[in-house]
Amino acid sequence: MTTSWSVEGKAALADLIGLPWEPGARGPYAFDCYGMVRHIQKRFYGIDLPDLVVNSDNDAEISDKIFQLGHPLGEEISGPSDGCVVTMGNERREMHLGVYVAVDGGRIIHSERGTGCVAVPIAQCVWRKLRFYRVKA
Fold first, then answer.
1. How far apart are CA 110 and CA 86, in angstroms?
2. Residue 54's pLDDT is what?
3. Which of 40, 71, 74, 129 is most buried as measured by Cβ atoms within 10 A of its Cβ?
4. Selection from 87, 103, 119 nearest residue 9 by Cα
């Protein structure tokens, strides 16, 4: 996994910020949360996650589809590590995905309805429950 980000890498990440959220979108001009995770994993870490076909804008339906695959996200780890997938949710369920990147003190990059692609420090993440997964190559 990447542990040191070049100027070019940071610029490429910055280019994702502000792209719109669209259900089922896989890029390069719009993403849903899983599409953003797949894109970042492939482009920056060389990991090709399986695609999921979910033609819905219902967060619960999307997350159910992801987790029905037997959790393709890898091994759960105790805290953030560059390139790990972050699941976000409430006490009852995981509902959203992003990727932790060790840039500018650490950020979660994710795409969500209403705001599109954003990069937020963990401390500013509005989701109550965060879990971290090391993706298997």
1. 9
2. 65
3. 40
4. 103
Instruction: Indicate the burial class of 22 (C-beta count within 10 angstroms; 0-12, 13-18, 19 or more).
Output: middle
Q: How far apart are CA 41 and CA 50, in angstroms?
A: 11
Using DSSP, how many helices (H) and how many strands (E) does the chain show? 3, 6
Average pLDDT of the residues of the chain: 85
Which residues make Cβ contacts (< 8 Å) with residue 121, sequence separation at least 6?
Answer: 105, 106, 107, 108
Looking at the chain, the whole-number percentage of residues with pLDDT higher than 90 is: 47
Give the N- to C-terminal CA distance of the chain in Å, as an integer: 9
Identify which has the larger pLDDT, 96 or 72: 96
CA atoms within 13 A on the CB side of 119: 18
Task: Tell me the three state secondary structure of residue 48.
Answer: coil
| Domain architecture of the chain: domains with CATH | 7-134 (3.90.1720.10)
